[in-house]
């Protein structure tokens, strides 16, 4: 396992400078109607406005830019059905190197098109983890490309940590910072940034009840693999990473869950009140806030809106 303890205050600042030309410093928005409904003061860090429409642009850019010259020549590879695929393809294109992306044949066409638009070469496989991993092995062996995982990787975590770093750099020091958790790249990076730049801020993860391996792992003190996840929050279906779990178990205060009905209601609330496009995974933190109001009452709460890549023809409300 990599040593994530090499990620520190200085390295996160360096990462933010390193990726500066490849990402947006995303805005922070507030909504008085949501404040009133929630019974606390809420602000939203809008990664739905990020390059490729998600926070994943940060970790992918940092990982690619940290490659040495020899590794860059052979390009990068990953397996992903979503935002990491597009983020890595774009980062590779900006660096002038090839990207080889193994994607399940059932991946949304809009996400395949995004990878191709960024110049990524797609290798389709059966829609299961073993097929994805076998496809990745074949690609790495054939091209000598460097595997960049979507979350269980120090350079990726370091890049994702820049999101919370921006919050603190703006002078915001919330009592609680909420982030969704799937593989754990964003939540672990957020926890590290909070430790270094705002240690009084408690970090809480938000997860769907239909894919709650992170909460179960957190409570058990050991990683419990995801099995048969069932949730509308399709960006949070994956199992928690090893590095990510180690960081989360040390520095995250709690992981709360919400069911799909609650997630959809929170998603709709953001559309109606804030007039911005988010994907279902993005709404999970607001959902857990709204069903745990006493925990957040009268506090300053930050929510990271993780992305806005949603198929508008398949919105879960009308």
Automatic annotation (TrEMBL):
A Pfam family that the UniProt record links to this protein: PALP
Domain of life, source organism: Bacteria
Coiled-coil region(s): none
InterPro entries per the UniProt record, alphabetical: Ser/Thr_deHydtase_PyrdxlP-BS, TrpB-like_PALP, TrpB-like_PALP_sf
GO MF terms, alphabetically ordered: ATP binding; D-serine ammonia-lyase activity; L-serine ammonia-lyase activity; magnesium ion binding; pyridoxal phosphate binding; serine racemase activity; threonine racemase activity
Cofactor(s) needed: Ca(2+); pyridoxal 5'-phosphate; Mg(2+); Mn(2+)
Protein's name in the database: Threonine dehydratase
PROSITE patterns in UniProt: DEHYDRATASE_SER_THR
UniProt entry keywords in alphabetical sequence: Lyase, Magnesium, Pyridoxal phosphate
Family that this chain belongs to: Belongs to the serine/threonine dehydratase family.
Tryptophan synthase beta chain-like PALP domain residues: 20-307
One GO term of the biological process aspect: D-serine biosynthetic process
């Amino acid at each position: 396992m990599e040593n994530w303890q090499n990620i520190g205050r200085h390295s996160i600042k360096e990462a933010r400078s390193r990726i500066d030309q490849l990402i947006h410093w995303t805005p922070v928005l507030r909504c008085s109607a949501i404040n009133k409904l929630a019974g606390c003061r809420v602000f939203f860090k809008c990664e739905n406005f990020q390059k490729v429409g998600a926070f994943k642009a940060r970790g992918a850019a940092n990982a690619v830019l940290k490659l040495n010259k020899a590794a860059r020549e052979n390009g990068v590879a990953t397996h992903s059905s979503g935002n990491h695929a597009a983020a890595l393809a774009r980062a590779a294109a900006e660096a002038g190197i090839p990207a080889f992306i193994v994607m399940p044949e059932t991946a949304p066409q809009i996400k395949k098109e995004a990878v191709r638009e960024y110049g990524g070469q797609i290798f389709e496989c059966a829609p299961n983890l073993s097929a994805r991993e076998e496809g990745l092995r074949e690609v790495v062996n054939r091209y000598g490309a460097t595997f960049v995982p979507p979350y269980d990787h120090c350079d990726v975590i370091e890049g994702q940590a820049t999101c919370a770093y921006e919050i603190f750099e703006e002078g915001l020091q919330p009592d609680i910072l909420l982030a969704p958790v799937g593989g754990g790249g964003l939540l672990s990076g957020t926890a590290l940034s909070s430790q270094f730049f705002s240690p009084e801020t408690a970090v809480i993860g938000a997860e769907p009840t239909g894919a709650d391996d992170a909460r179960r792992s957190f409570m058990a003190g050991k990683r419990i693999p995801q099995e048969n996840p069932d949730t509308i929050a399709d960006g949070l279906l994956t199992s928690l990473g090893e590095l990510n779990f180690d960081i989360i178990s040390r520095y995250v205060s709690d992981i709360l869950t919400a069911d799909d009905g609650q997630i959809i209601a929170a998603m709709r609330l953001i559309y109606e009140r804030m007039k911005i496009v988010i994907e279902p995974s993005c709404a999970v933190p607001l959902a857990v806030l709204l069903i745990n109001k006493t925990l957040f009452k009268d506090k300053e709460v930050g929510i990271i809106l993780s992305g806005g890549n949603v198929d508008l023809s398949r919105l879960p409300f009308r």
